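I keep forgetting this: the sequence line spells out the residues, with the fold written below as integer tokens. I include a record here:
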Amino acid sequence: MWGMIATWRMAKEGLEIAQDILSHHGDAGDAIEKAIQAVEDFPYYKSVGYGGLPNEEMEVELDAAYMDGNTLSVGAIGAIKDFANPISIARRLSHEKVNCILVGEGAEKFAHKEGFERKNMLTDRARIHYRRRIKESSQQLKPYTGHDTVGMVCLDETGKMTAATSTSGLFMKKKGRIGDSPIIGSGFYVDSDIGGASATGLGEDLMKGCISYEIVQLMAKGMHPQQACEKAVFDLEEKLKQRRGEAGDLSVVAMNHRGEFGVATNIDGFSFVVCLPQQSPIVYLVERQGNQCVYAPASQQWMDEYMHTRMAPLTESEDE
């Protein structure tokens, strides 16, 4: 048995690469790294990697993390600039016993020493989005409302599981800001004996519930991944509303060691992708119904419109 689940439609092409690896007896670490690299390298996805939207100083700062569910080894980087494929740097760090989480200049020095590719990650499209936001904002800049981290959980034939994330974070974020994505237990967590989870949304709120770790612990107690995701999301949402008056975007995906999967969200428009031995990667759209979530395959029309919107020509005076 093998399987893989990922946040958002943007992960589909990456999961197609991973499927080929997993179906030929490949390793969960290799599959998840290659899948996330595909998202990082596609310039039209403006929340991950090359083409990711910049911070308020028009710098692209990237976060990424990788976890091995067999050894519980973790590698993570935060606020790194001018390096391609932060997921690969994070995976390399997971082999370190100490100094396995690096940020900013320290992460960049490590990446340079290890020979990772330097690359200007700011694209012309991202510059246009930035300049528009500056023109639109007569008051203090506020972060972009979307938080589309790509997060994945992978299971291979040997039973090994991995989890990984990659993101450019909030648009117009403060320099040096780090969300949940590179934080173990919040943006991701995996234990090959149980399963794994990954989150996307408002990192500042997701971290308040250590939500990925919480989902794995619920699965450890016998919950199906779907039940675990729903309980974690809606319990945290309720607590945040009670304590703070509001809750940000909270979306999660999970898979257990048997290849069963689950998903939950408190927003409209969340999508995810799954591949299993009996099915190629399928994009699903999620609908919240009270404190439960249901999902159905995305239509071809939805898929076509998704790519058309993201790849449409962009100028300074038009909106994407």
